[in-house]
From TrEMBL:
Coiled coil feature spans: none
Sorted UniProt keywords: Repeat, Transferase
Molecular function (Gene Ontology), one example: thiosulfate-cyanide sulfurtransferase activity
SUPFAM superfamilies named among the record's database cross-references: Rhodanese/Cell cycle control phosphatase (SSF52821)
Native organism: Aspergillus steynii IBT 23096
Domain Rhodanese as annotated: residue spans: 40-134, 175-289
Name this protein carries in UniProt: Rhodanese-like protein
Keyword hit for Transferase: yes
PANTHER family listed in its UniProt record: SULFURTRANSFERASE, THIOSULFATE SULFERTANSFERASE
Amino acid sequence: MFSSKLITPQDFHEIHSQSHDDSQRIIPVAAGRTAHIPFFNASHIPGSIFFNMDIIRNPDTPYPLMVPTPATFSREMSKLGLRPSDVVVVYDAAEIGTYNAPRVAWMFRIFGHKHVHVLNNFRLYKELGLPVETGDVVGHTLPRESGEAETYPCAQIDQEKVISYSDLCDLLAQADQTYQILDTRTNALFTGEDGYSDPSIQRGHIPGSVNIPLSTVLNENGAIKTPSELRALFEQSGLSEKPVILSCNSGVTAATVEVALEESGYAMPKRLYDGSWMEWGKVSSPASIARGKE
């Protein structure tokens, strides 16, 4: 239906407006947090459901926005009325460029949803004058057919797409580095020049990381750049074909760079460090934290 994980507003609108196959619905999913609900109510793609990242997460960790359990994901998708056969197109509920949507799309994929795409992006969609609607539809449930199962079947988390703190520590302890770590935070946070309001979070980065800030993969509209632009950026950063571990502040913006890697033809295995710096900066020893450009 869509040839790429990343789709333009024009392609989405053309196919969505002509789709009448209820056996494989195209569902626009607005990704955001509770603070973004007013933006969603003021303007969203017709037929959207709202994916609240403050609810669909694991509350039993001290770190924000961690991946929920399969049971939680299944329960929340069931509430929304989603089917495994749905074609999910995720966009940012607030017109902030590209930020939350790739993270939510990544979450769908790690739980085994097959047809998942990211709209590039809602700001451009609106600038093109494509249809939007208003209204409070947070909590809206998609219609079900008579006799349709009410439970969204959820697979276990695909561990090939995510990495834990302990597993990352084990990799760092290996003498032969068979992987590369990309940190998508701002350069000032990466080097340790800037810090966090929480004094328990140390400054710096994971040793051996390469800094590719989120802003460098986005254009002036906040959309992900073209494949050729991205390829040039990654080559200039010294990226190789080794497997990649992606990290950021809290596991959100790293997912955007994961999409950018896919779009620019990098087919190496990619794992997202879910706890990211909110975890690493709190629990690691000073010896496991680097500062400066290297």
